[in-house]
Amino acid sequence: MTTDFAATRAAFVLPEGIIYLDGNSLGPLPKAAAARVAEAVEAEWGQMLITGWNKAGWMDQPARVGDRIARLIGAEPGTVVMGDTLSIKVYQALASALEMNPTRRVILSDTGNFPSDLYMADGLVRTLGDGYSLRTVAPEEVLDAIDETVAVTLITEVDYRTGRKHDMAAITARAHAMGALTIWDLAHSAGALPVELAGVGADFAVGCTYKYLNSGPGGPAFIYVAPRHAEVARPALSGWLGHESPFAFDLGYRPGRGVERMRVGTPPVLQLAALEAALDVWDMTNMADVRARSIELTEAFIKGVEAACPALTLASPRDPASRGSQVSFRHPEGYAIMQALIARGVIGDFRAPDILRFGFTPLYTTFDDVTAAVRILAEVMDKSLWDRPEYKTKARVT
Ligand SMILES: *Cc1c(COP(=O)(O)O)cnc(C)c1O
Asked: CATH code at 360?
């Protein structure tokens, strides 16, 4: 199937006059989501009340939706389940992986990782005590740092700031050769580029759905457990819906079948309904087309900005094969420049200390968007339009 990007673009609400280059942080609203959520609210919650758990299939929804995500990340059917936030899923994967490698005490991550992943690891290390530690190395040193002390690697494939992409196959192979398990964070990969979890033999993976997958603010995360581990991994967050038989109300915990044991509590039914509508758009795509177009869009943007804005320095890898689906530039006044851009309808975001970040999401970003964004950015730079006090006051969310 070849992807019809005009049709996918038509499936989103894209406000007039806005060039949206922040779908790597919060995807836009799929047109069908409003009606799908309204149906879940009115016809299911409103009319079925508690019988919706069975009649509307709410109880099966986390696994049913997980299977649709599995297709996008190269995972086997029945290996992905939805729920909670990504930070929680990181904790859960880490706790299980550490327990599966009991003679080792080191979690290996890198300094390019998203801080929440590192904070969660740090919190778990404190809870466990017993000699556990988190070791962070520079991203380019990860491969060499995997030695016989490492219990588990916790690596985010695509760097949230620069878009730099790790070699998932090489790191997974090295980890396994050294007797370590791998956890891949796919926050900036799922829906951004092809991922082959089964192909590389990943052990665990986690990711969120409100970025490239367009589930909306607060959309639930996913967790993947390789089939060879699914009956072995013990959930640290052993909530009732991960129990083998929640409605037996046993006093003792018994993990549920396969990845379902990674469920914790009541699933976010309404938010999952929005995600189901978003995944209908993904059903119109194949990831090879998405990746090819993402590379064309990012290459065009880099070329345009470098020609028109010499004061901006490329922070992303120049080689598209080493890059996710975002492009970042550095400038000491990055925050003010981004506010000036947003005021002119070009929405990207800013990441401290000096990164202007632009996401390219082929489902709805066009080459005309790229051309217009470059033109507006060049005008902001040429005329120093960013140099105004109102663009320099930092908001709570940047
Ligand atoms: C976006 C992101 C998060 C956010 O976690 P939440 O718990 O969903 O807020 C965590 N890790 C990475 C790598 C991210 O990119």
From this structure: 3.90.1150.10
